[in-house]
Amino acid sequence: MRREELDGAIIAAYERLREDPRTHKSHLFHGRYENIYPPRESFPDIEPLLTWIEARCRDVLSPGDARLGIAFWFNEMHHGDRTTLHTHNDADELLSGVYYLVVPEHSGEIVFHPDGEVQAFMPAAGDLFLFSPSLPHEVRENRSGKLRLSVAFNVGVRQSGEDA
Predict the structure, then answer these.
(1) How many domains does one find in the chain?
(2) pTM of the entire structure?
(3) Cα 3–49–53 angle (5° rounding)?
(4) pLDDT in tens, 128-142
(5) What pairing do the DSSP bridges indicate for beta strands 95-102 and 83-86?
(6) What is the domain-level CATH number for residue 51?
(7) Rounded distance between C-alpha atoms, residue 150 and residue 126, angstroms
(8) In this structure, is residue 162 part of a structural domain?
(9) 164 domain residue, yes or no
(10) pLDDT digits (tens, 9 = 90+) for 85-105
(11) 21: in domain
C-alpha cells in the first residue's frame, strides 16, 4: 500500500475513533486536548505504520533482541493551536518521535532546543522525526486555518507478556 493510501486509512479510522468513549484524552490546554489516545485494539489501520516506525527505531537503537514497545497518541492542531515546550522522559522511554499525516502550509514548525540552541523544522506529510525523550521541544502556532494531524509516540523496552 502506498504511503498516501495508508495515511488516508489512518486518518479515516482516527476520525471514526476520536469520539469513541474508549478514546482517552489528556493535557487540556486552552480548551484543546493535546494528546488523543484511540484504543489500539480498535485501530488495525495503524498497525502497518507502527511496525514501520518500530523498524526505524530499531535502526537507531540497535537493542539486540530486546522487544520494543510503542505507545502512541494523536496531536490534532487547529488554527491558533500550539504545543508548549516539553520533554517525554517521564518513564523508561528510549526514543520519542512524531509522524506527520496532515501538514498544511503555515501550520507550525517543530522546534527542538538542544543545549540552549533553537532548531526549527517545517515538516511535510509523511515525515518522521525521531529524537531523545529528554530533548526539549515544542510546536509553533498553527496559522494555516486548517487541521494539522500527527502521530506522536514513545518507544521503550517491553517486559515479557506486556502489551505495547
Answers:
(1) 1
(2) 0.90
(3) 115
(4) 999 999 999 999 999
(5) unpaired
(6) 2.60.120.620
(7) 10
(8) no
(9) no
(10) 999 987 778 999 999 999 999
(11) yes
Q: b or e along 42-61 (b: 16 or more beta carbons within 10 Å of the residue's beta carbon)?
A: ebebbeebbeebbeebeeeb
Query: Residue 83's domain spans which residues?
Result: 3-157
**57, three cell numbers:** 527505531
Question: What contacts 24+ positions apart, CB below 8 Å, involve 59-67?
Answer: 60/95, 60/130, 61/94, 61/95, 61/155, 63/94, 63/157, 66/157, 67/157, 67/158, 67/160
CA gyration radius for the chain?
15
Identify whether 23 is part of a domain.
yes
Quote the cell numbers at residue 147: 487541521
Residues of the chain with pLDDT under 70: 1, 63-65, 159-164
- pLDDT for 1 equals 64
